[in-house]
Design a protein that fits this description.
Blueprint: H1 2-19, H2 32-52, H3 57-67
Helix pairs in contact: 1-2
Length: 68
C-alpha cells in the first residue's frame, strides 16, 4: 500500500511539474487555462494517494474506475 501511495505521489509530482512548465510535452499545444486542469489532476493524485491509506476497498474501486 505504501508503494501504491508513492506511485500516486510520483504521478502527482510530474503533473505539477508539467503544469508549472518545468517539463514540457513538446508535441502538445496548451493554453493557459489548461494548466489549471493539470494542477487539479495532480491534486487528485495526491488525494488518491492519501485515500489508499484509508484501507477502504470501495475507494480503491472508485479510483480504479476513475483512472480507467
Amino acid at each position: 500500500m505504501i508503494g501504491c501511495m508513492v506511485l500516486a505521489f510520483i504521478a502527482a509530482v510530474f503533473y505539477v511539474l508539467l503544469a508549472s512548465r518545468v517539463i514540457a510535452a513538446s508535441t502538445l499545444e496548451s493554453k493557459d487555462w489548461q494548466h489549471v486542469l493539470v494542477y487539479v489532476a495532480g491534486g487528485c493524485y495526491i488525494l488518491g494517494g492519501l485515500l489508499i491509506l484509508a484501507k477502504k476497498r470501495w475507494l480503491w474501486i472508485v479510483g480504479l474506475v476513475m483512472n480507467t
